[in-house]
Amino acid sequence: MVRLVSLLLLLLSTTAFSETNVNQQLLERIAKSKQQLMSIEKQINQQSLSYQKQINQALNDVKALREKASAIQRVADEQILSVEQLSQRVEKWRAQDNYQKLLLQSYFEQNSTPIGQFTNANGEVVISENVFNTLQNQLVDALVPRWQPSKVVDESGEIAHFNVLEMGPISLAYNQERALGGLVEQHINQAIPSLVKGVYSDSEVAQLAQLNQTGLGTVMFDPTLGNASKLQNKQQGIIEHIKKGGVWALPILFFGALSFVVAMIKAIQLLKLPSIKSDLTARLSSTDELRGAEHQLVEIAKNYPVSNQRDDQLVAFLMKYRYQVENYLGVVATSAAIAPLLGLLGTVSGMINTFMMMNTFGTGDAATVSGGISEALVTTELGLIVAIPSLILSALLSRKAKSHNAKLEANAIQLSKYEF
């Protein structure tokens, strides 16, 4: 028994010792593993920092290479752009050279200068010192006024030979055989210039003849360069101005004349009416003579006693008298309303004609569309000219008629209760 107990104690002590050793070994292994883990983490961190530095260096290198590539590309683009600009500049120079050659050729042709001495084998004008010398000589000659024979259309519309003196933009012409002369103007779309009509008198033509013969004389010229004569020729009378309004000007003038005639007749009628005073009943006992509508109102009041019958007779007379006074006043007001509408109708018609002309002949020539524009504007002008005075006359006449009728009605009310 004792042996058995001893044996058990021995086993228990052996087991406890074994467990202690195992635990100690495990703790040692865990500590060793932690050290290895810390070492590996430190190594990984060091490698990460190294790799990060390498990546940053690579990114910086890429950025520098990109900037260098952009600079190279920019230089290449600038070189290409410079070539394009030079090409455009060369094209402009060529166009300018061609324009100068064409301008010189046109100038020589207009001045009847032989152009063969200034051209090459291909017929192109060569700008050289000879060309500039010729131009200089011609300009010097142009600065000195000289009489040159030329064809001019005279005042009768015939083409005749005149001696023409050009002084800048001003041209004078004189025909010694016919003793005719004056200012010369060049019209658009007219190859031969013509004399300006109605400007030079006989004394001024004599001065022009003296200038032609002796080189000394006093001449008159137009500082407006023909604009004054154009304005003088454009002046027109009332009839010509109305004719520009076309067919729609006729009804506008008709309503204008009708309104004026009716307004004058009604004005005379209203002015001839006897004045109405407010004290009619007070004047019945006096010796004042009553005239016109007041006299008729008194007669009605005398013939009928104070009753509804007297009132009816007075009202009937007032209505009839009002109609006589205000009759035809509506014609003036109607004319004032219709005239601008007719003007608007003429405006629409004129614009339609204008667009038809523009569609047919285009917009290059203003004379082809001026007729429709004149019709559009003149009819509107005539409509307003008729409407404004008609409206004023209608207001004045209506006010006069209403005032007269109102005073007469007030007197009629007094008579309706008056005992004779």
From TrEMBL:
Signal peptide: 1-18
Annotated TM spans: 248-268, 328-356, 376-397
Keyword Membrane: yes
Example GO BP: protein import
Main subcellular localisation: membrane
Protein's membrane topology: Multi-pass membrane protein
Coiled-coil stretches noted in the UniProt entry, renumbered to this chain: 23-96
Keywords: Cell membrane, Coiled coil, Membrane, Protein transport, Signal, Transmembrane, Transmembrane helix, Transport
Cellular localisation: Cell membrane; Membrane
GO cellular component terms, A-Z: plasma membrane
Name of one Pfam family that matches: MotA_ExbB
Domain MotA/TolQ/ExbB proton channel positions: 318-409
InterPro entries recorded: ExbB/TolQ_transport (IPR050790), MotA_ExbB_proton_chnl (IPR002898)
Family: Belongs to the exbB/tolQ family.
Stated name of the protein: MotA/TolQ/ExbB proton channel domain-containing protein
Species: Pseudoalteromonas piratica
